[in-house]
Design brief:
There is one protein chain. By secondary structure, the protein is of the alpha+beta class. The protein is 31% helix and 18% strand. The chain is built from 13 helices and 13 strands. The strands form four sheets. It has a four-stranded antiparallel sheet, with helices on one face. Helix 7 runs antiparallel to helix 11 (250-262). The longest helix is centred in the C-terminal third of the chain and has 25 residues, at 360-384. The protein is globular.
């Protein structure tokens, strides 16, 4: 996301980004109006002098003052340039106006968008959660305004399906949203009236409320399905209103919402787009690809099915090795390679997943940066003896930090039966064994195996022809 490596994750689900944020003017030295958009469809209106050279750091001071962000929480947020085609988290020294002028070049480089779509795309400037802000620090925030900003973004991710949820999660989160919007004192009739006026999709994920998810049979009528969803939501809402003799404070509800989101391993991820190979359905069938979102955060890497809204593969950094390769010929794709442990008929094997994406290099660099942050953070946590693998102690700098966050033999991966679990059986992966007799492995510009190479080796993968055809 952030930094000179230019990690720019696109977010095609952001439906607020058709609005231009940065005014263009021939006289940029004069005061210009700038809109900084927030999640939840609100904005901060600023009048900025010298717009052409103003930095994120300077804008940040003005926005924090306008929103009354306390100094203790100022690192929780960052500025983003966002459109339906691409998202970019900015560094403090970046100048938004200049990046806007380069927007089309970024789209050509990092997206598969058509020339027409690129010519019509326009970014907006957003103030959103910092992808590198640790979840542990969120638990220490008690300012209602800050919690509201975090809540609005998390709610948007849940409703749009960016954060896949199991029924118990989405129902609990929907009830908390209703309690935050309407209070906890609604009776049954008021509840039904409110939910139907605002629509279920204001509280539950759209694919659930509209019946397009795979969890409900299409044979059930829309009316009965929605009645069932409303009833489940009402039961969860009543638990909130009866949980205490007094109505819970908004900060309590906000904390509860965020705490529930923290149980989702991909909360706070930066998201990239890509494609993976579908398993062949027949010997002669031509291979097809499936669209995926790739979420990367301080915890690990998560590959999610865009259509089905569930996790295909979730790996913590100590469970994977990775690299990327560049196209060798015209028409080839950039590829992010993920390697992890598996088994074939009881035999331990190494599995390779290929993710085709113009953002493969960005994802690889982002993983590397997160591994370094996590490694340094864990070292600080051990010194503090705080009892947690803490991500709250982010280092001031990463130079000289340990790079041994991966490599070595990993333990067996643990899975669970929910939308959060990995579905390795449904992936078209390349399997090979350590001695390399089953299939030709990667030619080193690196150690002989992902497992044994040193963490400082990041050169591009060179793939043999037989490996590509497998």
């Amino acid at each position: 996301m952030e930094g000179d490596d230019c990690n720019f994750p696109p977010d095609s689900l952001d439906d607020h980004s058709q609005r231009g944020s940065v005014a263009s003017s021939a006289t940029l030295s004069r005061a210009q109006d700038v809109l900084i958009y927030l999640c939840g469809d609100s904005a901060v209106h600023l009048s900025v002098e010298g717009l052409g050279s103003v930095s994120v750091q300077e804008l940040g001071r003005s926005v924090r003052e306008a929103l009354h962000i306390p100094e203790s929480a100022q690192d929780a947020f960052a500025f983003w340039l966002s459109s339906p085609l691409l998202e970019l988290q900015l560094k403090l020294r970046h100048q938004p106006y200049k990046l806007c002028r380069q927007w089309q070049d970024l789209l050509y480089r990092f997206t598969e968008a058509s020339e027409e779509d690129i010519s019509q795309d326009e970014p907006c400037l957003q103030y959103r959660r910092n992808v590198f802000y640790p979840k542990a620090k969120e638990l220490q925030i008690y300012d209602e305004g800050v919690l509201r900003l975090l809540y609005e973004e998390a709610r948007d991710r849940v409703l749009t399906g960016r954060y896949p949820c199991d029924p118990e999660h989405w129902t609990a989160l929907g009830a908390l949203s209703l309690a935050l919007d309407e209070g906890t004192g609604l009776d049954g009739q008021q509840f039904t009236t409110t939910v139907r006026e605002k629509k279920l999709s204001s509280f539950l994920p759209v694919h659930v409320a509209m019946g397009s998810g795979g969890l409900f049979s299409t044979l059930r009528g829309k009316s009965s399905r929605q009645t069932g969803l409303e009833q489940n939501l009402l039961e969860e809402y009543r638990k909130i209103s009866k949980s205490d003799g007094n109505s819970p404070e908004p900060t309590q509800l906000l904390h509860q919402y965020l705490n529930t989101c923290h149980t989702l391993p991909y909360y706070g991820c930066a998201f990239f787009v890509g494609e993976i190979d579908k398993p062949a359905q027949g010997f002669l069938q031509r291979a097809k690809r499936k669209a995926v979102n790739v979420g990367i955060c301080l915890e690990g890497v998560y590959v999610m099915d865009v259509k089905e809204k569930h996790v295909l593969l979730g790996l913590q950094f100590n469970e994977l090795s990775w690299d990327h390769s560049y196209p060798e010929e015209q028409g080839d794709s950039h590829i992010l390679w993920l390697e992890f442990d598996g088994d074939e008929d009881g035999t331990p094997v190494n599995k390779l997943l290929k993710i085709y994406s113009k953002q493969a290099e960005l994802m690889s660099g982002f993983i590397e940066f997160c591994v370094e942050l996590k490694s340094a953070s864990e070292g600080g946590a051990a010194a503090e003896m705080d009892g947690e693998v803490s991500l709250s102690q982010q280092p001031a700098g990463q130079d000289g930090s340990s790079k041994n966050g991966r490599g070595g033999r990993r333990g067996v991966l643990h899975r669970q039966s929910s939308v959060l679990c990995s579905r390795v059986h449904s992936l078209n992966t390349i399997s090979y064994v350590d001695n390399g007799k089953e299939i030709k492995r990667l030619k080193p510009k690196r150690a002989a195996s992902f497992f044994t190479r040193q963490a400082s080796t990041y050169s591009a993968v060179q793939v043999t022809e037989s490996l590509e055809q497998s």
